[in-house]
Fold each of these.
Amino acid sequence: MNIVVQKYGGTSVGSVDKIKAVADKIIKKRAEGFQVVVIVSAMGKTTDELLSLAKAISDTPDPREMDMLLTTGEQVAISLLSMALISKGHSAVSFTGHQLNIQTTSLHQKARIKDISISRVIEAFEDNKIVVVAGFQGVTDNHEYTTLGRGGSDTSAVALAAKLGARCEIYTDVEGIYTMDPRKLTKARKINKISYAEMMEMASLGAGVMHYRAVEMANKYKIPLYVASTFSEEPGTIIQFEGEDSMEETVITGMASNLEDIQVTVINLPSSTGNLYRLFGQLADREVNVDMISHMITEDGKMYVSFTIPKEDLSIAEDIISNWQQEIPEIKWEINKNIAKISVVGLGMRTHSGVAAGVFKIMAENNIEIKMVTTSEIKITWVVDSCLEEKVITLIGKGFGLVTVE
Ligand code: ADP
Ligand code: ASP
Ligand code: MG
């Protein structure tokens, strides 16, 4: 059986007319001889609206009830899409995460998919039905509703594709993966082919076009991924393994930026590896995802430790450090909430030297202060003041050939 999993994001189903257009696109695929499973996100900004309703009730909404609320968004979208398919003369059936037994871990709003039971999908195929599934949601062993984190419908799609041995097509409001978010760099170029490794880096560094775990899972289970526009027939982006087919011959494939982190600097810590372990061990115990770290030892045996964490984890970091300050009063800390983390990503960095130098040259020529830097085999990330984000993106876009040439 030739199965394809298609995922349509929130903007793609943002209105009744768009839902009807998506139905036509699905019908076209069906007419090509495919069994189609469709994963849908909540309509338009529904999830944001549900979140603000919850925040209007409480600053710290109960996590279980939050998932009870958030899962309603996708349920509206699947039923409407299914109705649209039926009204156009096709058999279709919609399923929630619970109905398909999309089993997840129990951490509300950050759950991970453990398994999916596909028996109802197969039964629906036998009845010649198009299957429409709610993205972003699952259920625990105790039948509690969970969600997978913002943007998680991509991961629902890849997980179903993995389970069905199908290819996965992600349809969204842009024509594919670009060298940089086209909302932040209007002249960004569309990339025809990108490797899983580069796409994983881009997704984790702020390219919100794909949920990080979706790319990770597609890489792990070798699921062919294709990202394209819901609203046009232009070819999109193929995500593939390195060396599978020729890629573009560029050193830097793309760029990403992220305004979601803060920089914490701890001053006057007694210098020891044990203290580094204590600090980062306690952050890890409380599930804080630390990204960049730098530390410096002063002549009088003290450490300055600087690190970046997501904004929402600030109170945890402050709690940990202030407890420590009660033991050692000279410990101090500073928080910088106005940072932008900019990254360039490219497999070409493995074989080409001088990329970091190129970044520093552009920053130096424009008097831009770099507050922190980290590198890995295929990426360089650096922190600048958030008010310089746009300027840096434009300079790097031009400097590294990430923009369209007129
Ligand atoms: P959907 O609702 O379809 O899941 P998202 O908003 O999650 O859509 O993802 C699409 C958006 O991702 C685009 O509108 C674009 O602004 C943003 N984006 C961020 N980085 C990139 C990138 N490198 N290439 C394309 N789009 C990107
Ligand atoms: N509706 C969810 C969100 O807005 C899931 C998704 O769009 O993938 O985050
Ligand atoms: Mg998305």
Amino acid sequence: MTDRRLFLKASVLAPAALAAARAGATEPRGPVLTRPCVVSTWDFGVAANQAAWAVLSKGGRALDAVEAGARVPEADLKNHSVGRAGYPDRDGHVSLDACIMDEHGGCGAVAAIEHIAHPISVARRVMEKTPHVLLVGEGATQFAVEQGFPREELLTPESRAAWQDWLKTNRYQPVANSEVGTYGKTGPAPLGVPGGPGNHDTIGMLALDAAGNLSGACTTSGMAWKMRGRVGDSPIIGAGLYVDNAVGAATSTGVGEEVIRNVGSFLVVELMRQGRTPQDACREAVERILQRKPEARDLQVGFLALSKTGEAGAWSIQKGFTYALCDGVRQDRLLPGLSTY
Ligand code: GLY
């Protein structure tokens, strides 16, 4: 039996056995960043981190940094998995999901919002201007317009052409659980397979500011060609993002349904509270997904975490997940996350 299988067995059988297995865990720890710092998912996190760093390096608040950073891929017309130019649902509607969380446990989110290019900023307004946490669909768009956000067409000619291409070959069947190796057929499903189209997905960003406060942001256009109304993990507090200013923060990317089923980001932060390193906590969250649903090994889910002390960590089901980090000594750094397979 492999070490991993032994570990899975131990974790099913008894928490004490799990703890013992963990005590012997030898996986390398993630990098320790200097304060202030920011980490974010995927290659496009490098550019996003620069916008966040512009805030952090001047002594700015982590919340302002993650909002500024998340807006970069939201505005990038070459990015078809976040914001404007995101690939649409199977009916041709671009619908976006985002959430944000601050150092006080405040949070705001929008889900299935349409015609608004910067859902992360609307999520912040939900947090700061309403008594609610999550606005969805038409109500979210209405709120955004009332707040002064322009109502726009987000479907670009390239995204429309890709959608029409998909319609021709896929018989209107959404593929929420894209298998590795099928992305080229099922759509751009940018889940981090090397060489896969786009090779990108949700941006999740976590920042620790000079004052020692944590915040996080997460934004996506979700699964390409999804069913109308489908919402992934990214706007769900505890699934796509969680911040506890006393402990650390975590965010996720990949097949959102699997993250929601396991309340992934909350789990990562709770494991860190129990003493796990960020990397080990991310690994355990991935293992939980695989315990419950072994066939999830054919999917991609990745977690990224940052502790209160600036230690980062990442783990994914499949190889190919990357994360970007930036602090006073390391700029533009892109690292591979470790993976179970
Ligand atoms: N993780 C993005 C989504 O599933 O929508």
